[in-house]
Amino acid sequence: MNSRDYILNVERLDSDVISHAIPNFDANYSAIAARMLTQVRAKTLEVTHGKLNAFTVFPVQTEVSAGATTALQRTYDMVGMAKIVANPADDLPLADIFVEETSVKVKQLGIAYQYSVRDLQHAVFSNTPLSTMKASAARKANDVKINKIAWFGDKDNGIIGFLDNPNLSEYTLKNDGEASGTALSSKTAEKQFRDMNEFINTIQDNTDDTEQPNTVLLPPSAYTTLSSTLYTTADGQTTKTVLAMLKENHPEIKRWEKIGELKNADSTGAKDIMIVGYFDPDYIRLEIPNRFEQMPIQAKNLAFTVPCHSEVIGVTVFRPYCFTKAVGV
Fold first, then answer.
1. Residue 108: CB partners within 8 Å, gap ≥ 6?
2. Which CATH architecture has domain 165-283+319-327?
3. What is the CATH number of domain 3-69+104-161+286-313?
4. Quick check: 223 and 216 in contact, CB under 8 A?
5. For all residues of the chain together, what is the average pLDDT?
6. Residue 165 pLDDT level (bands cut at 50, 70, 90)
7. CB within 8 Å of 236: residues ≥ 6 apart
8. What is the SS3 string spanning the chain?
9. Topology agreement, domain 3-69+104-161+286-313 and domain 165-283+319-327
10. How would residue 81 be classed by pLDDT, with cut points 50, 70 and 90?
11. Residue 322 and residue 278: Cα distance in Å, rounded?
12. What Rg, from alpha-carbon coordinates, does the chain have?
């Protein structure tokens, strides 16, 4: 069923429910109310929430069909190297891929919003659109949960978040700041520049220079520190912010993002985290088989409820050693 047929089918179901639940609504009034609900659903799907960074940081894709209960997460590691050969040659080296598969469960999220009988009566008789505030709140609550699962997982349901993914390497920040601190804000511009260079270079170091990162994710305090601390080169000729110098020295980094979810994001809830990696659908994905679906209304007592659900797996890291985190930044 295509999307238009699905919408029309839901609208017909809504109309039937409304006509049975409100005696003074004829077929025309019920159809008008159902169309208003369709408009609410459409506007709800257009809503975006700018502070939920998982949806823009991670490539959002899935190869899992909606309705699936389990899925395979695959981690890939490539082996093999070409060599100089004679002509003709029959001893060509083989390239191969090692695949580690882990079975994971697809988790269903559920939420609902509600209109009273009086809400629908007032909307129809006064020709006033239904408020979308309740529907938008349901959509936001759903997205907030997906965002939290993406970054931090859900321990009670066995979902590992990106920040705790075992395929992330870890860089240990030097504790040579003020009061033996590791935070960038406690260090001189030179030490900030050193730490960030070493941190970014971990991807090349871990992959023998076969991979390089394209993204650096920073907690707000670290981003502010790097973008406001002035750095003067050894020859005294150039003075720029540390962040500006880093951007010049690392043109391979296309995104320098300030991410609120990285504040106090370690296991103790007291230390900030920063991330460097290659963010591409072949390397990492936020897997959401069903982003947000609004079901036909259900009548109960003097209210109509719109059940909503989505399906989520979480963040899958396909390439080990292509992502590094640092705690205490």
1. 309, 310, 311
2. 2-Layer Sandwich (3.30)
3. 3.30.2400.30
4. no
5. 87
6. very high
7. none
8. CCHHHHHHHHHHHHHHHHHHHCCCCCHHHHHHHHHHHHHHHHHHHHCCCCCCCHHHHCCECCCCCCCCCEEEEEEEEEECCCCCCCCCCCCCCCCEEEEEEEEEECEEEEEEEEEEHHHHHHHHHCCCCCCCHHHHHHHHHHHHHHHHHHHHEEHHHCEECHHHCCCCEEECCCCCCHHHCCCHHHCCHHHHHHHHHHHHHHHHHHCCCCCCCCEEEECHHHHHHHHHCEEECCCCCCEEEHHHHHHHHCCCCCEEEECHHHCCCCCCCCCCEEEEECCCCCCEEEECCEEEEECCCEEECCEEEEEEEEEECEEEECCCCCEEEEECC
9. no
10. very low
11. 6
12. 26
Tell me the percentage of the chain whose pLDDT exceeds 90: 63
Domain locations in the chain as residue ranges: 3-69+104-161+286-313, 70-102, 165-283+319-327
pTM score = 0.83
Given a contact cutoff of 8 angstroms between Cβ atoms, the answer to whether 206 and 169 are in contact is yes
Query: Which are the contacts of 101, defined by CB distance < 8 A and separation ≥ 6?
Result: 72, 73, 74
* Diameter of the chain measured on Cα atoms: 89
Between CA 184 and CA 222 the distance in angstroms is 6
